[in-house]
Amino acid sequence: MSTVHNVIIIGSGPAGYTAGLYSARAMLEPLMFAGYMSGGQLMLTSDIENFPGYPKGIGGPEMMMELREQAERFGLEVRDQNVESVDLSQRPYKVIVEGETFLTHAIIVSTGAESIWLNAPGEDEQKGRGISTCATCDGAFFKNEEVMVIGGGDSACEEATFLTRFASKVTLVHRRDVFRASTIMIERASKHEKIEIKTFRQVKEWLSDEKGLTGAVLEDPRDGTTENINVTGAFIAIGHKPITGFLGGQVEVDKEGYIIHKKHTMTSVEGVFAAGDVVDTRYKQAITAAGMGCQAAIDVEKWLEDQH
C-alpha cells in the first residue's frame, strides 16, 4: 500500500484500453483493474465492421485482445479483478480490490454501461447470434431479413427506423400501448411502410436452431395468450445502466446514473476522470469510447503535471 500510482484505470473496453495505451506511452506507469469480464460490451459482439482500420471487419473479443496487447506492450499493467469501492475523501485516493487497498494520485473510470436484457428463456445462447442491443453495430448483418425491436422509448423507435435501411421488415414490440418515445419518433416509426408495431406484447421465449435465432414466442401480458413471430434478428432497446455503484455516490451523476463531466473529462472530484459509455448517453460506439479514453489520458497527464 506504500506505493502511490500515478493513475489507476477502472474498467477496460475501448475507453479503458485506449486510456491505458496513452498513459503508458506518457510514462505514467498506469495500473488497470479490467474486471472479471474484461473487454466490456464488445465481448458480446460477434463482428465489428464500423471501426476504422479494419476493412474486413473484426470480432469484438479479438479487437479487445488486440487493444489490450497493444497497451500492455507500452507498459500498462492489467489485473482482471473487480474494484469493490473507492475512497475519494482525500488524496492520494484509495481503490479497494478484493480487500486490498491501492493508492493513486488520479483515477480514470471506464466501467461502461450494461445493456438491460430481457432475460427470457433462450436469450443467453443467442446473444451475438441474432440477439443484439445495438442496431448501429449489428444492423447491417440483417440485409433483406425480418427483424424485431423490443422497447417503447426513443431509442427503440430510432433503432426500428434505422433498421429499415437493411431489413425487409421491422416489427416493433412493446408490452404496453403507451410509448415513452416522443411523439415525433413514434409517428415516424408508425408511418414507415417497413415497420409494424405490436403493442401489448412481450417476449416469453426465444426460438432458435443450429444456425441461430429463428423467432420468438410473444405473450399478451393482459391475458397470457401467445403468438409466434419469425425473425432472424432481434434488438433489445429497453435501456442501459451505467456501472457506477462502486463509486458510492462520491462522484456527481445524472438522474440515470451516468457520470457528469465538469471540465473536459474530469468529474466533480478533482483528479478523477471518466471516459466511454459510463459518461456517454448519446453515441455509445467503440470509436467514440476510444476517443474519450485518449482525451482522459491526456487530461490526466496534464493534470498531474500541474500538481508538481
How does this model look, in words?
α5 (154-163) runs parallel beside α6. The strands form 4 sheets. Strands 1, 2, 3, 4, 5, 6 and 17 form a 7-stranded mixed sheet that branches. This protein has a 5-stranded parallel sheet with strand order 8-15-9-10-11. It has a 3-stranded antiparallel sheet with strand order 12-13-14, with no helix packed on it. The two termini are 22 Å apart. The chain has 308 residues and is an alpha/beta fold. The protein is elongated and about 65 Å long. It has helices at 13-25, 60-73, 123-126, 135-138, 154-163, 183-191, 286-307; strands at 4-10, 31-33, 77-79, 85-87, 93-97, 100-109, 113-115, 131-132, 146-150, 169-173, 195-198, 202-209, 212-219, 226-230, 233-236, 240-242, 272-274.
Annotation, overall tally of beta strands:
17
Q: What is the mean predicted local confidence, pLDDT?
A: 95
Helicity level: 10-25%
Derived structural class: alpha/beta
Oligomer class = single chain
Major β-sheet profile = 7 strands, mixed
Low-confidence runs: none
What is the CA-CA span between the terminal residues?
22 Å
- What is the overall shape? elongated
Relative strand content: 25-35%
Could you spell the SSE succession in H and E letters?
A: EHEHEEEEEHEHEHEHEEEEEEEH
Using the CA coordinates, give the radius of gyration. Answer: 21 Å
Discrete helix count: 7
Short description:
The protein has 308 residues and is an alpha/beta fold. The chain is 25% helix and 26% strand. Strand 1 (4-10), helix 1 and strand 2 form a beta-alpha-beta unit.
